[in-house]
Amino acid sequence: MASPKISALAITLNEEENIERYLKNLWFADEIIIVDSHSTDRTVELASQFPNVQVHLRTFDNFSAQKNYAISLAKHDWAVFFDLDEEVTASLAKEILEIVSNPKKIAYFVKRDYFFMGKRIKYSGFQRDYVIRIFNKNFCRYNDNLVHELIIADGPTGRTKNSSPHYTYKSFDHYTGKLHQYSALQAKMLYEKGKKPNLYHFFFRPFYRFWYQYLIRLGIMDGKEGFVLAYINAFSVYKRYVNLWLLYRKID
Amino acid sequence: MPKLTVIIPTYNEERYLEAAFQSVSFADEIIVVDSFSTDRTVEIAEGFGVRLLQRAFDNFSNQKNYALEYATGHWVLFLDADERVTHSLEAEILQTISYPKHAGYKINFPHFFMNRFLYHHSDNVLRLVKREGAHFTGSVHEKLHVSGSIGQLENMMLHFTYKGLNHYIKKKESYAWFQAEQLFEKGKKTTMFHLFFRPFYRFFSSVVLRGSFRDGIPGITVAAIDAYGVFQRYAKLILLHKGIR
Asked: Could you tell me where in chain A the CATH 3.90.550.10 domains are found?
């Protein structure tokens, strides 16, 4: 019995550093669909050199819409949808093939192994960093969150045995720059919902975030890097509410 | 009336320069020392008929000392292009140099942040000096010296530094690299004490000791960002020891 076919999906913007490694690791897919947000580097050129890759250009509006568009282009029922900074290891690829040939669930979570400042972060909330990356597209869609988009799976879900190394850290400034973007987007979401910032948001939420991540989620076990991670996340929470405060006053 | 020279160092200041000239038009002489701007700075300066000097930038001390050589006033006021002398400060300057008690005067700069002046987060800087004997030293943080005592002006200088929240934070972030590299060269290593205590102390001293909470959310935010800058200095020092960014 031939196993069901797999569509591998990805969205890209200026990923020339990652794209080749990423595509090579998707050798098991029957088609690869890249939705590119008009990259200005060599992403599209490099991707097009691979035989079973289709590149579609779409202007970026938000992550959910971009990813749902990629899903809509998939030919096959089963899709794998990894980020470019996530590695599909050989053992994970083998496991995916086994899952798809005999699926018991409609979607599967993959554990991500997280790296920050050159160190594998084992605690700090990353004990349980599971994300849906393998799913039957007939039952799954991304929700409408502008950031931290999530797959909504309409049915039972499982977990893979193998994990995926997650190389989201490129440099400190790159990392905090991404957090600045998130905090601005989150402020926009709150603004559109009509939420107003108050003293609880400014004084309690950032401190709570820090202590939650550092003590309750055991960031303290990750050494100095655990402290740094808790601090920049807490600062990002504070900045979210400052951005919201500024939005109501029409200040940049 | 003693003669007053205003010295303005510039690099790509086309947005700010004209208003700066207007705010010091009471001066007898304006000298612009430009580091070869690539925008309309030079054109604007020439249009205003000020004395224009051009010099390749090495540091602020040398740049300003160079301009001092060309100054002819008895008194010199140092101004940045994004700073404005108010009418009350103008009156105080003219009165002070007519009856001087000191060789130099400090001026208070309330911090302009999130479109508001933070009166509890101000810098007090020596800016108005007798030309005779005045000179700068220091290649990183330039320091102005005078021969004689130093007094204080009461009125504040307006300083329009704010170019958006992200711009402000990014400046702190790149400055943190610079400071981390200085610590690295001295062989310093980051300890948990640095990470825990230094940012906290910066925040505490600004919000409580200097009272910046009285400036509301912008006052507290500027303190939080300053503390974040201190924190980043030590986080980046960890990275320098690992040889990564």
From this structure: 6-166
Q: Which of A184, A224, A235 sits opposite B192 (nearest CB)?
A: A224
pLDDT tens digit string along A170-227? 899 999 999 999 999 999 999 999 999 999 999 999 999 999 999 999 999 999 999 9
Residues A176 and A118 sit within 8 Å (Cβ to Cβ): no
Q: What number is the average pLDDT over the span A72-83?
A: 97
Residue with the two structure tokens 């980020």 = A83
Pairing of strands B29-34, B51-54: parallel
Instruction: Give the residue numbers in A contacting B (CB under 8 Å), as ranges.
Output: 117-118, 171-173, 176, 180, 184, 202, 224-225, 227-228, 231-232, 235, 238-239, 242-243, 245-246, 249, 251-252
Angle of CA points A13, A125, A96, to nearest 5°: 60
| Continuous segment of H or E residues that includes residue A142 | strand A140-142
H-run or E-run covering B119: strand B116-130
B162, B202, B220, B245, best to mutate vs chain A, most A CBs in 10 Å: B245
Which whole number is the average pLDDT over B122-131? 94
Strand, coil or helix: what is B123? strand
**Within B127-215, where are the H helices?**
165-185, 192-204
Rounded to a whole number of angstroms, the distance from the CA of A60 to the nearest CA of chain B is 22
Closest by alpha carbon to A117, among A250, A239, A227, A4? Answer: A227
pLDDT in tens, A100-128: 999 999 999 999 999 999 999 999 988 88
Interface residues of chain B, partner chain A, Cβ below 8 Å:
114-115, 163-166, 169, 173-174, 190, 192, 195-196, 199, 217, 220-221, 224, 228, 231-232, 235-236, 238-239, 242, 244-245
Per CATH, domain A6-166 is 3.90.550.10: yes
Give the mean pLDDT of B134-155: 93
Say yes or no for a CB contact (<8 Å) between A176 and B173.
Answer: yes
The CA–CA distances, whole Å, from B107 to A44, B10, B87 equal 56, 20, 14
State how far residue B97 is from chain A, nearest Cα, in angstroms.
39
Q: Given an 8 Å threshold on Cβ–Cβ distance, is A225 in contact with B238? A: yes
Do the Cβ atoms of B196 and A227 come within 8 Å? Answer: yes
pLDDT given at position A2: 63
What one-character-per-residue DSSP string does B86-99 give? -HHHHHHHHHHHHS
Which residue is it, tokens 């051009």?
A: B54
Residue with tokens 């200088």: B157
State how far the Cα of A61 lies from the Cα of A199, in Å rounded to an integer. 32
> Architecture of domain B4-159 in CATH?
Alpha-Beta Complex (3.90)
Residue B120 confidence (pLDDT): 85
